[in-house]
Amino acid sequence: MWLGFPIIQRSGQWGKLRPITGSDFFINWFRNFSCPICLQAGCKIQKERVIIVMKKCFVLFLSFCILVVFSVPAFAADSISRKDLPKYEIKGVQWQSESDTKITPKAAVGYWKCANLSSTAVNERFVDYVSSPWAYADKYTIAEAKTITFGIQPSATADLSSAIKAQVVVVASYAFSKTTTISIPADPTRKNRLGLFSDFVQKYVKSEYYSPPNYTVTKTLYNYVYDPVRGSSTLKVVYY
User: Fold this and answer.
1) Chain centroid to CA 50
2) By the 8 A CB rule, do 135 and 240 touch?
3) Average pLDDT of the chain?
């Protein structure tokens, strides 16, 4: 007997011992304790107290089982990494692992900062030839269109040219066109060609390049930029 709970029970005249079943356990527990009110074992009050205790034990056991059932799947799901799962498609939507969805950041790039230091007017600056190669022509008849654009000396890279155009140049370009045929006389005793001229504003530009990651000035260039004056184009005979 331990705390009033009988562990074994004698059976038969030979005194054989047999283990107590679950029902015998609670019956003997109920019989070996007296009611604290009437001091009698097995009374109704004692029976009700035993039933209440058994119900509480059952509720605690059921709560423990529910906790275990819902905790194990959650733990198992957390222990699986997304990258361990294969790709699959559900209704046309493809799921990807973490390694497939990483975005590679763009490399940092530098930029040009341009400033005009001075401006000078340049009249009738040569743009281009609008006639055939050198010849002894006595006149030129022309009816064509041509675009006059800004120029940079010395020549600049594409990124510097774009920066100068955006930060310094005003006109950038304009169209020269002759919709009607015109005749321009020339000296046939000398080789000549017909040239296109336009007025420009010559600007002396300072350009600084800021390099990453600290964006400090790592390169400084100086250029002459010729910004065309709109509507100032003329045609002139050029002699060899």
Assistant:
1) 67
2) no
3) 76
